[in-house]
Specification:
By secondary structure, the protein is of the alpha/beta class. The protein has two domains: 11-142, 3-Layer(aba) Sandwich (Rossmann fold), CATH 3.40.50; 151-205, Arc Repressor Mutant, subunit A. It has ten helices and six strands. Strands 2-1-3-4-5-6 form a six-stranded parallel beta sheet, sandwiched between helices. Helix 7 (151-160) packs across helix 10 (196-205), helix 8 (166-173) crosses helix 9 (177-191) and helix 9 (177-191) crosses helix 10 (196-205). The longest helix is centred in the C-terminal third of the chain and has 15 residues, at 177-191. It is elongated. The two termini are 29 Å apart. The model is unreliable at 1-7 (pLDDT under 50).
């Protein structure tokens, strides 16, 4: 993923990460690059979106799991907004479900936090020049995730994770209890789970929630 030449212009970046120490560390590392400028930092996706609309950076570099607006939510918002910004996901989660959902959301880059900083910088340069970059080990992993849950099945499993009975799942989502059972049955079959709790656990582990 190396790109020795780099772009001829400066790449502007907004960094979105809810953990302050990690956010500041990546911002400082990127600011050391002669052709990268961190123009703002955000602690969640909602703040990042406001900054993107105001500053219109080349890239928003974001974690996936953040309170409120997640990195995947942010990617969808950026894709539907009238901005030139492209999204690069930087995450600790090597989960195929997350990658597939990220690509569906229009993410232009997907890199693991454990990657060397030069790989991250190279990814930013390539994305800024119009290319899509996915860490090779993650690209291979995406083909190992045949499970596709519907949005409603994911909604049901997210509530199931809290441990409430089906009637409360139904009340929370404004569904009939029988409809909830049907969604759970479909999800359990797709995930090869023996019960609803196992289905929720498997979906979370695979990055499908």
């Amino acid at each position: 993923m190396s790109d020795a030449s780099g772009p001829s212009r400066r790449v502007t970046v907004v960094v979105a990460e809810d953990q302050g120490m990690i956010r500041d560390a990546f911002a400082r590392l990127l600011d050391l690059q002669p052709d990268v400028e961190v123009v703002a930092r955000a602690e969640d996706g909602a703040e990042a979106m406001r900054l993107v609309e105001r500053l219109r950076p080349d890239i928003v570099l974001t974690d996936i799991e953040m309170p409120g607006t997640s990195g995947l939510d942010l990617a969808e918002q950026v894709a539907s907004a009238d901005v030139p910004t492209r999204v690069v996901i930087l995450t600790t989660f090597a989960r195929p479900g997350y990658l597939r959902r990220a690509l569906d959301a229009g993410v232009a880059g997907y890199v693991l936090k454990a990657a060397p900083v030069d790989e991250l910088v190279s990814a930013l340069r390539q994305v800024a020049s119009g290319r899509r970059v996915v860490a090779p080990e993650l690209a291979v992993m995406a083909w190992d995730a045949p499970v596709e849950l519907t949005e409603r099945e994911r909604d049901v499993l997210r509530v199931v994770e809290t441990g409430v009975p089906n009637r409360e799942v139904a009340a929370t989502l404004h569904l009939a209890e029988g409809t909830v059972r049907n969604y759970l049955s479909e999800a359990m079959q797709k995930l090869g789970a023996r019960n609803r709790a196992e289905a929720a656990g498997k979906a979370r582990e695979r990055g499908l929630l």
